[in-house]
Amino acid sequence: xxxxxxxxxxxxxxxxxxxxxxxxxxxxxxxxxxxxxxxxxxxxxxxxxxxxxxxxxxxxxxxxxxxxxxxxxxxxxxxxxxxxxxxxxxxxxxxxxxxxxxxxxxxxxxxxxxxxxxxxxxxxxxxxxxxxxxxxxxxxxxxxxxxxxxxxxxxxxxxxxxxxxxxxxxxxxxxxxxxxxxxxxxxxxxxxxxxxxxxxxxxxxxxxxxxxxxxxxxxxxxxxx
Length: 225
What we know:
Elements: H1 2-49, H2 58-68, H3 74-94, H4 106-118, E1 124-139, E2 142-154, E3 160-172, H5 174-179, E4 215-224
Antiparallel strand pairs: 1-2, 2-3, 3-4
């Protein structure tokens, strides 16, 4: 009888200890889960207000751009990029292409029409934080500058989406785009001109005058979320 009571008491004691630790583990698990959910919500809130990072290469690339285009105005171009980035989202918002024929090449305007037709996302309150030069490249006579722009907009659910756009521009006159001119020669010595923006022949020193005023025209826009 005594052993039975001892076993019964020991069982009750063991069960109480196990219950105590089980309750403690459950409470601690709930606390960890609550902290985890809070951390996720905080991260999502921070992501809504923090602009996307940009890879600026202006300090390295601007001397090369100005070597080919001495009149290149970096500040003016950055403002142009910000306006074009805003125009991109307003085009999606209003479901019509708001870029004019003088702002982009024909293929770009075609792609914009397709993007407007494909877009199924509601866009409100588009805003552009900043734009930076991130690449300068060339192919034959053609020269391209690429900018990154940190943007935001609100979706249908009212959530603020932080996005990054890459906008690529090509330097050309209207005739260059329409005729797809890829080879230029010095009118004096016939030497090939290395860049459409060159003002002086590298071989004979002849001053070069472009057949048509040059401008930077939109060539491509890529959205990166």
